[in-house]
Amino acid sequence: MATWKEYLAFEGYKTFEEARKLSEELSKTDPEDEPYKSLYKARELLVTIREKLGSFSEDNEVLKFLCAALELAIELNKNGASKKGVTFLYSPVRRGNLSVKLYNEA
């Protein structure tokens, strides 16, 4: 079984990048009859990452921080904050180093 760091370096990275793209890019072109379609899908992906990270039994401060950051991202998504200028950036400085930053464009 992979460690949480290995998960984030590969599968988690791919999933988070997909969620970011849905929230920041594709949500701008959602149809009028489904204005939050991309945000709902992005939230599902963030929840998937949070659940996967929660399945690791390791007691680690960085892991706890990442789970808290994901909770914040999920709550902001629920409030539609990404349509109001708040964006989550996934910045892989090094492959395997998850860096979640809250960036307020306002």
Strand order of the largest sheet: 1-2
State Rg: 14 Å
Helix-strand makeup class: mainly alpha
Strand content: 5-15%
Instruction: Work out the number of β strands.
Output: 2
Number of domain units: 1
Taken in chain order, the helices and strands follow as: HHHEE
Q: Residue ranges: pLDDT <50 for 5 or more in a row? A: 90-106
Helix amount? 40-55%
Q: For this entry, what is the oligomeric state of its chains? A: single chain
Characterize the biggest β-sheet: 2 strands, antiparallel
Mean pLDDT: 78
Count of DSSP H/I helices = 3
Q: Termini, distance in Å? A: 42 Å
**What is the overall silhouette?**
elongated
What report would you give on this structure?
The C terminus is likely disordered. It contains three helices and two strands; from the N terminus they run αααββ. With 106 residues, the protein is mainly alpha-helical. Helix content is 54%, strand content 9%. The chain has one domain. A two-stranded antiparallel sheet has the order 1-2.
Comma- or semicolon-separated keywords:
disordered C terminus; 54% helix; 106 residues; mainly alpha
Write a brief caption for the model:
With 106 residues, this protein is mainly α.
Topology:
Layout: H1 4-24, H2 37-54, H3 61-78, E1 86-90, E2 100-104
Antiparallel strand pairs: 1-2
